[in-house]
Structure formats: C-alpha cells, structure tokens
From TrEMBL:
Keywords: Cytoplasm, Developmental protein, Nucleus, Phosphoprotein, Repressor, RNA-mediated gene silencing, Transcription, Transcription regulation, Translation regulation. The gene is CNOT3. It is found in: Cytoplasm, P-body; Nucleus. Signal peptide: none annotated. The lineage of its organism: Eukaryota, Metazoa, Ecdysozoa, Arthropoda, Hexapoda. It comes from Ceratitis capitata (Mediterranean fruit fly). GO terms for biological process: regulation of DNA-templated transcription; regulation of stem cell population maintenance; regulation of translation; regulatory ncRNA-mediated gene silencing. This is CCR4-NOT transcription complex subunit 3.
C-alpha cells in the first residue's frame, strides 16, 4: 500500500505541473480548472488500483489494428486464355462452327451403321450354329495358297476375279516362276533358258496355261516382249 501511495503521489505531482503549464499558455479558465480537477481525480483513482481505459493490465493483448481493405484486380477468364482479346473469325472457321453445330443436332445412332461382315460367302448355305460360320484366317495367307496345286491356282485366278483369293493365287504363281502375259491373258513359264535375251524381249521355249482348253501347252520359239509382262510387285 505504501508503494501504491507513492506512485499515486508522483502521478498527482505530474498532473499539477502539466495543468500549470497549460494555464500559463492559455490562461486560467473555469473549464480548465474543472478539467484539471477531473484529471487529478481520474489519475488518483487509477493509482489506487482502478485501471482506466488507457492503462491495460500487464499480459493483456493489445488491440488489433483495423486492417485496411486491399485493392483487388478482377481478370475475366477469357483474358487468361487470350490476353490479346478476341479476334474475328475467318470464313472457313465460321463454316466449321456451323457444321459442328449442325452435327450436334444430328448425332449418329447405332442403327445408322451396319455390322461389319468379316466373311461373306459367295453361296450362303444355312448351317447349324455349332458349325463354323466364318472362314479360318489360315486360308487367307500366301503360305496356304503355295500348298495348292497349280491347276487350283489357275482356277482361282480365272474364276474368282476381283477377289482377295485371286490376288493370293497370282502371288503364289509368281513364286513358282510363272509370269503373266497381258496381251494373251495367259501365264507363261520358261521351259529352258531363252536363246535370245535383250532389253526389249526374250525368245525361247515356254510352257503356258491355255485357259480355254484348260491344259498346259508348250510353245517353241516364242517371243516374250517385256512390254506385255505384268511385273508389278504383289506385296
């Protein structure tokens, strides 16, 4: 209590000195005296142990300063994608957008497409379900056609025109050293080494397949002009 009384006395003396300095500057007034008296009473009460609004107890948190609102910049999403802004569309782009919009309103359905037919027989025959309905992949290879007889290959070539089988038969015949003559539409094979060979033709004895008589025949002294040779590579 003695220490608190000493602190109160010091504060009162400081208040009296402050009031005297203010009176010397502005002159004594009734309001000033009342203010000094009120100030002394407030200081005395604060010294006795009643903390005022300005004297916060030790350990209390200071008042947080009011945060000033920061300025925010709002950017539209379009500027994030195209910083330079929008550009006028060309005529081709406008046409593409119109076609896309028209396609959106006319979406295809599964009924618009046909089922892919892996194998379509030339002469369909109704068979039981447990019977193979499709041709085996083994029959669509050159290796299979090379195991067929030469006469069978000629039959496939002449009677299955425009099919994959004709292509495979021709490829198998070429591997057996048969060459197709585009003028006579027949297959020729050397019977022996030609007697004459130059840049334009070769002459000698050949074996050819006569599709009208359906037999192989021999032709001696035949001139095979290279311009009638079917020499396309069959990959």
């Amino acid at each position: 209590q003695q220490q608190q009384q000493q602190q109160a006395g010091g504060l009162a003396a400081a208040a009296v000195a402050f009031a005297a300095a203010a009176a010397a500057t502005n002159g004594p007034t009734t309001a000033g005296a009342g203010t000094v008296g009120g100030g002394l009473a407030g200081i005395t009460n604060a010294g006795v142990g009643q903390p005022g609004a300005g004297n916060a107890p030790v350990g209390s948190k200071p008042h947080q300063q009011q945060q000033q609102p920061t300025n925010e910049a709002h950017i539209t999403p379009l500027l994030g994608v195209a910083p330079l802004g929008t550009l006028p569309l060309h005529k081709d782009h406008q046409l593409q957008f119109k076609m896309m919009e028209a396609a959106y309103y006319h979406l295809p359905t599964p009924a618009d497409s046909e089922r892919l037919n892996i194998y379509l027989p030339r002469t369909p025959v109704p068979t039981p379900q447990h019977y193979p309905q499709q041709q085996l992949p083994l029959y669509d290879t050159v290796e299979f056609y090379q195991r067929l007889s030469t006469e069978t290959l000629f039959f496939v070539f002449y009677y299955m025109e425009g099919s994959k089988a004709q292509y495979l038969a021709a490829k198998a015949l070429k591997k057996q050293s048969w060459r197709f003559h585009t003028k006579y539409m027949m297959w020729f094979q050397r019977h022996e080494e030609p007697k004459i060979i130059n840049d334009d033709y070769e002459q000698g004895t050949y074996i050819y397949f006569d599709y009208e008589k359906w037999s192989q025949r021999k032709k001696e002294g035949f001139t095979f002009e290279y311009k009638y040779l079917e020499d396309k590579e069959l990959n």
